[in-house]
Amino acid sequence: MISTEDLLQDNAFHRAGTLVRSEELPTSFWPGHAGMGYRVWYQGIGYDGSGRIVSGSVFVPAGNPLGDGWPVVSYAHGTTGLSDRTAPSVIGLSRPESRHVATWLEAGYAVTVTDYEGLASPGPHPYFNGEAAADDVVDIVRAAHQLGHPLSRRWIVVGFSQGGHAALFTGLMATKYAPELDFRGTVALAPPVEVPMIVGMQTADDSASVTLFLPYLLAGLRTTHGLATQEFMTGLGQRLIELAEYAPVRDIHYAVAVLTNQDIGTTGLNRHPGVEEMLNACRVPAARFDRPVMLAAGTADAVLPMAAVVQFAAEIRRAGTDIHLETCAGADHTSMLSAVPEILEWVDERMSATASASAFEPSNTRSGFGLLDITGDGCLAADDYEAFGLRLVQAYGEAPGSPRAAAVRAGYRALWRAMAIRADVNGDGRITADEFCAWRRTHRDNDAFDRDITPLAQSVIDLADADRNGVLDREELVGLLIGCEHTPAEASILFDRLDTDDSGTVTTAELIAAIRQFCLDPTPDKPGAWLFGRFR
Length: 536
Description:
Shape: globular
Radius of gyration: 23 Å
Number of helices: 21
Structural class: alpha/beta
Strand content: 5-15%
C-alpha cells in the first residue's frame, strides 16, 4: 500500500496526467468483461492550483482491440462518500456502477474511473465542485495511456449523479485542456445540473423528506466554503453532517430515511446568508458545449427533479449545443445506470466518426453582435461570460480555482455586470441584439465603463505576466494567444496591434481600450476580439 507521505513526496514533480504509480487491483474489484484492472495514482492539478496526486482505477477489456486501440470511456462515479475509505479504488465500485462499467468493457471500451481529488489521496474532497473534478476525469485518461495497453486517442466521458455533474464540467473544458486526445462527447445520467433549483425545491417544506445528497452537499460546503451550518441546523442536523464527513452512502441512506427538513433545520435552506451564492457556484453553466451531449433522467427520481434536467437541456440547446435528452419513464435515481439502452448506440456513433468536428462555427463567419453572442442564441447572458472566463484560464493551463484564475473569472463577471447594467433594459438577465444596439447608440461615458472593465484587463495581464513587471512583453502575450488557438504569426500581429504606443509591451490601459472598443463595436478585426471566444 502506498502511504500519504509517498504521495506527497511525488506531488510536485510531474505534469498533469503523468502516471505516478500503478498496481493490479484485486480481481474482486474487476467488473465483468475486464481483462485487466489497475489501481493508479497520477498527477493532478488541484482546484486551487497546487499539485495534487489523484487515485483511480483503470479497466481494460479482454482480448485484442481493432484499429487504433481500445477507445476510452472515462467514467465519473456517483457519490460514494467524502472520506478516503469510500473511494472506488479502495472499496470497489457499487454493484450497479460495476455492472454499468461492465457494459462498456463488453462493448470494447477501456474504462477509467477517477476517485476524484481528496478521496484516497491527500486533501479534502471538494464535493460538487465540478471544475475540481473535471481535470481529474481527463487526467486519468492521460495516465491510462501510460500503462502499456493499446488505447485509442478517442474518448468520451460518462457520468452518473455527482459524476454526471462532473461529466458536464468535463465536457465544457476537455477539448482545450487535453488537445492531444480526441474528445468525442458527454453522457450525463441523472446529473444535478441546477443545484440551487434542486435544493430550493427539496427544502421548501418542513415535512419534505431529506434527500440522500443533501447531507453530503452541506458537509462539502462546510469544508470547502466555510458554510456555518451550526447557525441554522438543529443538533440532529449537525450530527448528520458530521456523519456524512466519513460515512459511506449506505449509512447516509439509512440515516435520512425517516428525517424531514424540520428535523434537521434545512427548511428554506436557500434563504440563509451565503447559501444561495455557494449553491450557484455548483451550477453547471448553461453554455455551448463544443461536443455532443446526451442527458438522461428518470421520472421517478426522488434525488433529481426532472424539471431541473429539462430546463438545463433547453438552455444548452438554445445556446447551440448538440443535445439529446432521454426521459426514462418510471426510472428512479440508481436505475438510471441501466435505464438507457440507447446509450451504447449513441456513443458508438460519435466514436466511429472519422474526425471530431467542433460544434462551433468559425469565428470569421460571424460579425457584430454575433461575435459577442458566441452561443448563437440571440442574446448575451451571465453564463456566456462564465464560460469565457473558464475556457480562457484553462486554455492557458491555469487551474480554475487558483488565485490568478479566480481573478480572471471575476473580471469576466465584472464585464458582464458592466454591460448588463447599461444594456439589459428590462432586467431579465439577458441582453438582446436590440438592447445591445440601443446601448451602443446612447453610450457616452467611456471612463465609467473603463473603470468597470479594469478588473478583467488587469487579471489577464497578471495571468500571463511571467516576470511580474505589470505588463506583457511579446513572448508573454504570444504564449497566451497561442494557448487560445492563434498561430504564432497571428499572435505576433495581435501583439503589435495591442501595443498602441510601440513600447514593446502591452499595458493594462491598452488592454482596457481594446476590450471597450470591441464591446462597443464588435468586429473580427478588433484586437480585443480574442478575449471573446477564439479559445474553444
